[in-house]
Every structure is written in C-alpha cells, then in structure tokens.
Amino acid sequence: MFDIGFSELLLVGVVALLVIGPERLPKVARTAGHLFGRFQRYVNNVKSDISREMELEELQKAGHAFKDSVEQAAGGVEKGVQEAEFTMQDEVVNPIEEAAKSISESEPASLLTEFEEDEQHTETTGTPESKA
After folding, report:
1. Are 129 and 118 in contact (CB under 8 A)?
2. How far apart are CA 4 and CA 17, in angstroms?
3. Do residues 16 and 28 make contact, with C-beta atoms less than 8 angstroms apart?
4. How far apart (Å, rounded) are the C-alpha atoms in residues 93 and 56?
5. Rounded to an integer, what is the distance from CA 51 to the centroid of its chain?
6. What does the pLDDT look like over 3-57, one tens digit per residue?
7. pLDDT tens per residue, range 111-132
8. Is 4 left (phi over 0), alpha (psi -120 to 50) or beta?
C-alpha cells in the first residue's frame, strides 16, 4: 500500500523515541498496533460486505433472467395446448357433433329397428350380422 522501506521505518522510530521518550514509547507502539489492527479488520469487513452485495446483485439478475425464461417457456406451452385444443375441436369434437346431429335428425324408429334386428341375429347365431 505504502512504499516505506526499512531505513524510513528506522528514521520514524528514532524520531518517535526522541519525541515521545523511552518510558512511553512501548505503550504508544502497542496502542498504534491495536489501532492499525482495528483499521485492517474494518477495511476487510468493508471489502467482504461489498463483495457480498455484488454477489447478491448477480444472483438477483440471474434469478430474474431465469424467471423470464420460465415465463416464456410457459407461454409457449400454453400456446401449444391451445393449438392442440383447437385441433382436437376440429378433428374430433366437430365430427362427433355432426354425427350426433345427423342421428337425431334421422328417424329414431328406423335406428331402433336396425338395432333390434342386430340384437336378434346376435342372439340366434352368436355373431353379429354384417351389413355391407
């Protein structure tokens, strides 16, 4: 961080010895060491907090991207289901409804007679009669 060499530290130590005095120098050095340690811990805590915030922001962005992709996929699935429903309506339900309508428009007595004839033939022969 700072470019301080051994000779510069020695010069600071000699000046501190002269200014503070030999009785109080160990106590001042100890206090300075504690303050320097606290400062380092504070800087490390700030760095770790900033890195955690950055990681949290990245995770939130990834979560939003995932949510958007899931919503797009769900929209595609929903569209596919709707298309399948329309296809089923056209290919299955409409012909069944037309057949039911034509059956209801024809004479019910003639259909009943045909059914009874088939039932009687099945009872007597054991096989249904095929009308071709």
Report:
1. yes
2. 19
3. yes
4. 53
5. 23
6. 778 888 889 888 988 898 889 989 998 999 999 999 999 999 999 999 999 999 9
7. 556 666 666 666 666 555 554 4
8. beta
